[in-house]
UniProtKB/TrEMBL annotation:
PROSITE patterns linked: PROKAR_LIPOPROTEIN
Signal peptide: 1-34
Keywords for this protein: Signal
GO annotation, cellular component aspect: outer membrane-bounded periplasmic space
Protein name: ABC transporter substrate-binding protein
Gene3D superfamilies in the record: Periplasmic binding protein-like II (3.40.190.10)
Alphabetical list of CDD domains matching this protein: PBP2_polyamine_RpCGA009
InterPro entries: SBP (IPR006059)
Superkingdom as given in the UniProt entry: Bacteria
BP terms from Gene Ontology: thiamine transport
Length: 355
């Protein structure tokens, strides 16, 4: 940052541009219901704060009488809330990682997305084949490492998934639980690197048994991981590039690595909850998230690669998100296969790995 004033002006300019863009997008749409509360199940931490500060005010202004309330939680928590509210009034829109989103669709929790011009501007990878959900953006699961600690130890930056079992990381690794998408990705990629597949994770479990002694924490909460990195209690973690971006914005000395064997693709899915009492408004909220203005904001603040092909990013922001070339190299997950086995794998993980 060169001076305080230019950065402040840039932030004000971005906020004004976003509000204007949202208002323009919503102008002429069907009138919002008066005194309506729209409940949005979304990731907590920096993502929740970004929505509250930079997205929701513009949406509420463009839809008078509307109040948007965030129901924070990770994907597992939000999916459980959907199960608990089934048939009752509750969340209207939800953000879920792609794996849990496929589960939500299979369970009938997501309604059909109404057709809108913005959907024709999306990359194919952002579209769920059912038409019941869409990716708000794309993330890569890879390796995060503590640059300050690595420099103090004289360690080179990590380059491979295979390094997670290195004894020098004993008690210095964060491996999110398999209940979290990042932890599940780690199990799947370790399986594929050792002769397995999405359906055959036996090699992955064997590798995880070697990695487990290095694990200090299986807690995937952003706040906990930020605390551990800041205090230099951890050197390395399995984490997403977007989450690493959020840590960096807090001044935490951390970098993201795309392992040479490939990072894993993670789509940040969103859907309108089936039979939402505020369906029209919920549809507009999803469409607004996909506009180039909001997509640029997601990329800048969360490190999420845009789903909308028309999104314009500065060179600095583009360097922090997965590029089209990197996205092409990401390891893909067959969620139809994985979700059918996930409950069984979770029980085994709890007995064998996280004990």
């Amino acid at each position: 940052m060169k001076t305080v004033v230019p950065q402040t002006l840039r932030k004000l300019g971005r906020a004004a541009a976003l509000s204007a863009g949202v208002a323009a997008f919503m102008f002429g749409a069907c009138p919002a219901q008066a005194d309506t509360t729209l409940y949005v199940g979304a990731y907590g931490g920096s993502f929740e704060q970004m929505l509250k500060k930079d997205v929701i005010p513009g949406f509420e202004k463009a839809n008078p009488g509307t109040k948007v309330v965030i129901v924070p939680g990770d994907s597992t928590t939000t999916l459980a809330k959907l199960q608990a509210q089934k048939g009752k009034a509750g969340m209207d829109v939800v953000f879920l990682d792609d794996g849990p989103m496929y589960q939500a669709i299979q369970m009938g929790f997501c309604g059909k997305l109404a057709d809108a011009p913005v959907y024709h501007d999306l990359y194919d990878i952002a579209k769920f084949k059912s038409g019941n959900a869409v990716a708000a953006g794309l993330i890569a699961t890879g390796i995060a490492y503590n640059t300050r600690l690595f420099q103090a130890k004289g360690w080179p930056a990590p380059t491979s998934w295979k390094e997670l079992s290195d004894p020098k990381y004993k008690g210095k690794l964060v491996m999110p639980s398999i209940k979290n998408t990042y932890g599940l990705h780690a199990l799947i990629v370790e399986s594929k690197l050792n002769g397995g597949s999405d359906a055959n994770v036996e090699p992955g479990f064997r590798e995880m048994e070697k990695i487990a002694p290095n694990v200090l924490s299986f807690d995937p909460s952003p706040g906990k991981i930020a605390e551990l990195f800041q205090s230099d209690e951890v050197a390395i973690a399995v984490w997403g590039n977007g989450r690493v971006q959020a840590l960096r914005q807090q001044g935490i000395p951390v970098e993201f690595v795309y392992p040479k064997e490939g990072a894993v693709a993670l789509a940040m899915g969103m859907c309108v909850v089936d039979k939402s009492a505020n369906d029209a408004l919920a549809q507009k909220f999803v469409q607004m998230i996909l506009t180039p203005q909001t997509q640029a904001l997601l990329a800048e603040s969360q490190g999420v690669a845009p789903s909308n092909k028309k999104t314009q990013l500065s060179m600095a922001v583009a360097a922090r998100v997965p590029s089209p070339a990197q996205i092409d190299k990401l390891v893909r997950v067959d969620w139809d296969v994985v979700n059918a086995k996930r409950a069984e794998w979770t029980q085994r993980w709890n007995r064998q790995i996280e004990r």
